[in-house]
Design brief:
The complex is a heterodimer of chains A (about 120) and B (about 120).
Chain A lengths: L4 E3 L2 E4 L5 E6 L6 E7 L6 E7 L2 E5 L7 E4 L6 E5 L8 E8 L10 E2 L3 E5 L1
Parallel strand pairs in A: 2-11
Antiparallel strand pairs in A: 1-3, 3-8, 4-5, 4-9, 5-6, 7-8, 9-10, 9-11
Chain B lengths: L2 E3 L4 E5 L4 E3 L2 E3 L6 E7 L6 E7 L7 E2 L2 E6 L4 E6 L8 E8 L8 E2 L3 E6 L1
Parallel strand pairs in B: 2-12
Antiparallel strand pairs in B: 1-4, 3-9, 5-6, 5-10, 7-8, 8-9, 10-11, 10-12
Protein backbone atom coordinates (compact mmCIF):
# COMPACT_ATOMS: atom_id res chain seq x y z
CA UNK A 1 0.00 0.00 0.00
CA UNK A 2 1.39 3.46 -0.87
CA UNK A 3 2.73 5.48 2.04
CA UNK A 4 3.84 9.00 2.73
CA UNK A 5 7.55 9.08 3.50
CA UNK A 6 9.57 11.71 5.30
CA UNK A 7 13.27 12.42 5.63
CA UNK A 8 15.18 12.72 7.80
CA UNK A 9 13.61 10.84 10.68
CA UNK A 10 15.58 12.95 13.16
CA UNK A 11 17.30 16.30 12.77
CA UNK A 12 19.36 18.21 15.29
CA UNK A 13 20.26 21.79 14.50
CA UNK A 14 21.60 24.89 16.13
CA UNK A 15 19.33 27.83 16.84
CA UNK A 16 19.35 30.25 13.94
CA UNK A 17 20.16 27.62 11.35
CA UNK A 18 17.97 26.78 8.39
CA UNK A 19 16.41 23.35 8.11
CA UNK A 20 14.54 21.67 5.28
CA UNK A 21 12.21 18.79 6.04
CA UNK A 22 11.31 16.58 3.13
CA UNK A 23 8.22 14.60 2.33
CA UNK A 24 7.23 12.37 -0.55
CA UNK A 25 3.43 12.25 -0.69
CA UNK A 26 1.45 9.42 -2.18
CA UNK A 27 1.95 9.67 -5.92
CA UNK A 28 -1.53 10.50 -7.18
CA UNK A 29 -2.43 12.82 -4.33
CA UNK A 30 -3.06 16.49 -4.94
CA UNK A 31 -3.37 18.09 -1.49
CA UNK A 32 -0.45 18.32 0.89
CA UNK A 33 -0.17 19.33 4.51
CA UNK A 34 2.32 19.98 7.27
CA UNK A 35 1.48 19.53 10.94
CA UNK A 36 3.64 19.67 14.01
CA UNK A 37 3.45 18.17 17.46
CA UNK A 38 5.38 19.69 20.32
CA UNK A 39 6.19 17.04 22.90
CA UNK A 40 3.19 16.35 25.10
CA UNK A 41 0.87 18.60 23.11
CA UNK A 42 -1.66 18.04 20.38
CA UNK A 43 -0.92 17.80 16.70
CA UNK A 44 -1.30 21.28 15.19
CA UNK A 45 -1.96 22.31 11.62
CA UNK A 46 0.68 24.43 9.91
CA UNK A 47 -0.18 24.70 6.23
CA UNK A 48 -2.05 23.13 3.33
CA UNK A 49 -0.87 23.23 -0.28
CA UNK A 50 -2.74 22.63 -3.51
CA UNK A 51 -2.04 23.43 -7.14
CA UNK A 52 1.40 24.78 -6.30
CA UNK A 53 0.22 27.32 -3.80
CA UNK A 54 -0.68 27.60 -0.15
CA UNK A 55 -4.41 27.15 0.32
CA UNK A 56 -4.54 27.66 4.07
CA UNK A 57 -2.10 28.36 6.87
CA UNK A 58 -2.26 28.73 10.62
CA UNK A 59 -0.91 31.54 12.75
CA UNK A 60 2.03 29.31 13.59
CA UNK A 61 3.14 29.41 9.95
CA UNK A 62 4.87 32.77 10.02
CA UNK A 63 7.49 34.27 7.72
CA UNK A 64 10.13 31.87 9.03
CA UNK A 65 8.32 28.99 7.35
CA UNK A 66 7.94 28.21 3.68
CA UNK A 67 6.79 25.26 1.62
CA UNK A 68 7.37 24.21 -1.92
CA UNK A 69 7.00 21.30 -4.28
CA UNK A 70 10.22 21.64 -6.24
CA UNK A 71 10.04 18.65 -8.55
CA UNK A 72 6.52 17.25 -8.64
CA UNK A 73 7.22 14.53 -6.12
CA UNK A 74 8.84 16.08 -3.05
CA UNK A 75 7.06 18.47 -0.73
CA UNK A 76 9.33 20.44 1.56
CA UNK A 77 9.00 22.55 4.67
CA UNK A 78 11.75 25.08 5.25
CA UNK A 79 12.37 26.87 8.52
CA UNK A 80 14.71 29.76 7.78
CA UNK A 81 16.07 30.58 11.21
CA UNK A 82 15.17 27.95 13.75
CA UNK A 83 14.18 28.83 17.30
CA UNK A 84 14.21 26.64 20.37
CA UNK A 85 10.42 26.50 20.30
CA UNK A 86 10.49 24.95 16.82
CA UNK A 87 11.59 21.69 18.43
CA UNK A 88 8.78 19.28 17.61
CA UNK A 89 7.71 16.33 15.53
CA UNK A 90 6.73 17.50 12.05
CA UNK A 91 4.23 15.43 10.10
CA UNK A 92 3.54 15.60 6.41
CA UNK A 93 0.19 14.42 5.05
CA UNK A 94 -1.41 14.07 1.65
CA UNK A 95 -4.81 13.26 0.25
CA UNK A 96 -6.34 12.50 -3.08
CA UNK A 97 -9.46 13.74 -4.78
CA UNK A 98 -12.52 12.25 -6.34
CA UNK A 99 -12.67 8.98 -4.46
CA UNK A 100 -14.99 7.81 -1.73
CA UNK A 101 -12.18 8.32 0.74
CA UNK A 102 -11.08 11.69 -0.59
CA UNK A 103 -11.35 13.50 2.72
CA UNK A 104 -8.86 11.22 4.47
CA UNK A 105 -5.36 12.54 4.98
CA UNK A 106 -2.51 10.03 4.98
CA UNK A 107 0.33 10.86 7.29
CA UNK A 108 4.03 10.21 7.14
CA UNK A 109 6.06 8.92 10.08
CA UNK A 110 7.28 12.38 11.01
CA UNK A 111 10.59 14.14 11.42
CA UNK A 112 11.70 14.86 14.95
CA UNK A 113 13.42 18.24 14.98
CA UNK A 114 15.54 19.29 17.92
CA UNK A 115 16.83 22.85 18.05
CA UNK A 116 19.72 23.44 20.45
CA UNK B 1 -13.14 27.24 16.28
CA UNK B 2 -13.22 23.51 16.44
CA UNK B 3 -11.81 21.77 19.50
CA UNK B 4 -11.24 18.09 20.09
CA UNK B 5 -10.83 16.68 23.58
CA UNK B 6 -9.44 13.31 24.59
CA UNK B 7 -9.79 13.09 28.34
CA UNK B 8 -7.81 9.88 28.84
CA UNK B 9 -4.07 10.48 28.48
CA UNK B 10 -3.22 6.84 29.18
CA UNK B 11 -5.13 3.59 29.20
CA UNK B 12 -4.29 -0.06 29.45
CA UNK B 13 -6.16 -3.22 28.58
CA UNK B 14 -5.54 -6.92 28.89
CA UNK B 15 -4.93 -8.79 25.69
CA UNK B 16 -8.19 -10.10 24.18
CA UNK B 17 -10.28 -7.69 26.23
CA UNK B 18 -12.28 -4.71 24.98
CA UNK B 19 -11.36 -1.08 25.55
CA UNK B 20 -13.10 2.18 24.72
CA UNK B 21 -11.28 5.43 24.06
CA UNK B 22 -13.27 8.61 24.41
CA UNK B 23 -13.31 11.73 22.26
CA UNK B 24 -15.53 14.77 22.37
CA UNK B 25 -15.52 17.74 20.08
CA UNK B 26 -17.06 21.14 19.82
CA UNK B 27 -18.39 22.55 16.57
CA UNK B 28 -21.29 24.52 15.18
CA UNK B 29 -21.09 22.68 11.87
CA UNK B 30 -23.69 20.13 10.89
CA UNK B 31 -21.62 18.29 8.31
CA UNK B 32 -18.11 17.13 9.10
CA UNK B 33 -15.83 14.11 9.33
CA UNK B 34 -14.30 12.41 12.32
CA UNK B 35 -11.28 10.15 12.36
CA UNK B 36 -9.29 7.94 14.65
CA UNK B 37 -5.59 7.61 13.87
CA UNK B 38 -3.15 5.23 15.49
CA UNK B 39 0.51 6.09 16.01
CA UNK B 40 2.53 3.02 17.06
CA UNK B 41 6.12 3.28 18.27
CA UNK B 42 7.21 3.13 14.63
CA UNK B 43 5.67 6.65 14.42
CA UNK B 44 3.74 6.08 11.18
CA UNK B 45 0.33 7.60 11.76
CA UNK B 46 -2.24 5.12 10.47
CA UNK B 47 -5.91 5.71 9.80
CA UNK B 48 -8.02 3.41 11.97
CA UNK B 49 -11.55 4.47 11.14
CA UNK B 50 -13.54 7.43 9.86
CA UNK B 51 -17.10 8.60 10.31
CA UNK B 52 -19.17 11.00 8.25
CA UNK B 53 -21.42 13.10 10.45
CA UNK B 54 -24.41 12.87 8.16
CA UNK B 55 -24.38 9.08 8.42
CA UNK B 56 -26.21 7.83 11.47
CA UNK B 57 -24.74 4.35 11.25
CA UNK B 58 -21.63 3.86 13.33
CA UNK B 59 -18.52 2.99 11.33
CA UNK B 60 -16.82 -0.36 11.87
CA UNK B 61 -13.52 -1.77 10.65
CA UNK B 62 -12.91 -5.32 11.80
CA UNK B 63 -12.16 -5.13 15.54
CA UNK B 64 -12.56 -1.35 15.60
CA UNK B 65 -15.89 0.41 15.89
CA UNK B 66 -17.10 3.81 16.92
CA UNK B 67 -19.97 5.07 19.00
CA UNK B 68 -20.91 8.32 17.29
CA UNK B 69 -23.34 10.45 19.26
CA UNK B 70 -23.87 13.57 17.17
CA UNK B 71 -26.10 15.41 19.62
CA UNK B 72 -23.63 14.81 22.43
CA UNK B 73 -20.67 15.54 20.12
CA UNK B 74 -19.04 12.34 21.18
CA UNK B 75 -16.99 9.94 19.07
CA UNK B 76 -15.56 7.04 21.04
CA UNK B 77 -13.47 4.20 19.67
CA UNK B 78 -14.03 0.63 20.78
CA UNK B 79 -11.31 -1.93 20.25
CA UNK B 80 -12.48 -5.50 20.64
CA UNK B 81 -10.24 -8.51 21.21
CA UNK B 82 -7.26 -6.24 21.91
CA UNK B 83 -3.95 -7.39 20.49
CA UNK B 84 -0.39 -6.51 21.44
CA UNK B 85 -0.05 -4.68 18.12
CA UNK B 86 -2.77 -2.29 19.20
CA UNK B 87 -0.33 -0.67 21.61
CA UNK B 88 -0.01 2.88 20.31
CA UNK B 89 -1.01 6.49 20.71
CA UNK B 90 -4.52 7.06 19.41
CA UNK B 91 -5.57 10.45 18.08
CA UNK B 92 -9.08 11.64 17.44
CA UNK B 93 -9.40 14.21 14.63
CA UNK B 94 -12.12 16.44 13.24
CA UNK B 95 -12.43 17.92 9.78
CA UNK B 96 -15.11 20.15 8.33
CA UNK B 97 -15.71 20.36 4.61
CA UNK B 98 -14.65 21.53 2.11
CA UNK B 99 -12.32 18.61 2.10
CA UNK B 100 -9.20 20.68 1.67
CA UNK B 101 -9.43 21.89 5.20
CA UNK B 102 -7.16 21.11 8.06
CA UNK B 103 -7.61 18.45 10.69
CA UNK B 104 -8.10 19.37 14.33
CA UNK B 105 -6.56 16.82 16.66
CA UNK B 106 -7.01 15.84 20.25
CA UNK B 107 -4.03 15.39 22.56
CA UNK B 108 -4.05 11.64 22.15
CA UNK B 109 -4.56 8.57 24.34
CA UNK B 110 -1.65 6.24 24.92
CA UNK B 111 -2.98 2.69 24.92
CA UNK B 112 -0.97 -0.23 26.25
CA UNK B 113 -2.13 -3.78 25.66
CA UNK B 114 -0.89 -6.03 28.45
CA UNK B 115 -0.11 -9.66 27.62
Amino acid sequence: EPEVTQTPSHQVTQMGQEVILRCVPISNHLYFYWYRQILGQKVEFLVSFYNNEISEKSEIFDDQFSVERPDGSNFTLKIRSTKLEDSAMYFCASRGRGSSNAETQYFGPGTRLLVL
Amino acid sequence: AQTVTQSQPEMSVQEAETVTLSCTYDTSESNYYLFWYKQPPSRQMILVIRQEAYKQQNATENRFSVNFQKAAKSFSLKISDSQLGDTAMYFCAFMKPPTGNQFYFGTGTSLTVIP
